[in-house]
């Protein structure tokens, strides 16, 4: 599967992006192709730019890390949900349940989300490496092929 990765951060660059490294390692370890990777500011126009680039390179999935909290700068969720053709509410619900098992009540602060957009499945995860690992290992990787196949039906 061709997957595009994006980290939304106002403070990190590629060198400091541990979550991006985790995403790449896990995806490539399962045989998926990383067709692009960007560290961007948590700004709607930059998020939309990543989606345009992902579509141009033929990505079937885009995974975002960061920008899913409740601070005033976190805009990833609002931007993506405004673009979703179909939402996948079970992703966020399950992510928060699994996260709760690991970190307790702080899991309620996560607004992890997923949905479809122009033939791609989009996932938004919190920016911590542990959250990225949890979301990929427990939810995204087991269902990525299935989700993409469903988009072509």
**What is the CATH third-level topology name?**
Molybdenum Cofactor Biosythetic Enzyme, Chain A
* Tally of DSSP β-strands: 6
Task: Note the total helix count.
Answer: 5
Structural class: alpha/beta
- What's the SSE pattern? EHEHEHEHEEH
**CATH classification class:** Alpha Beta
CATH architecture: 3-Layer(aba) Sandwich
Q: What would the principal axes of the Cα set say about the shape? A: globular
Domain count, please report it. Answer: 1
Distance between the termini: 16 Å
> The biggest beta sheet, please?
6 strands, mixed
Strand content: 15-25%
The helix content, as a percent range, equals 40-55%
Low-confidence stretches: none
Instruction: Work out the radius of gyration.
Output: 14 Å
Question: Any idea what the CATH superfamily is called?
Answer: MoaB/Mog-like domain
Strand order of the largest sheet: 2-1-3-6-5-4
What do these coordinates show?
This protein has 153 residues and is α/β, with parallel strands linked by helices. The protein has a single domain (2-151), classed as Molybdenum Cofactor Biosythetic Enzyme, Chain A (3-Layer(aba) Sandwich). 46% of the residues lie in helices and 22% in strands. It is built from 5 helices and 6 strands, in the order βαβαβαβαββα. The chain has helices at residues 18-29, 44-56, 76-83, 89-103, 129-151; strands at 2-8, 33-40, 61-65, 86-87, 113-117, 120-125. A 6-stranded mixed sheet has the order 2-1-3-6-5-4, sandwiched between helices. The longest helix has 23 residues, at 129-151. The model has no long low-confidence stretch (mean pLDDT 96).
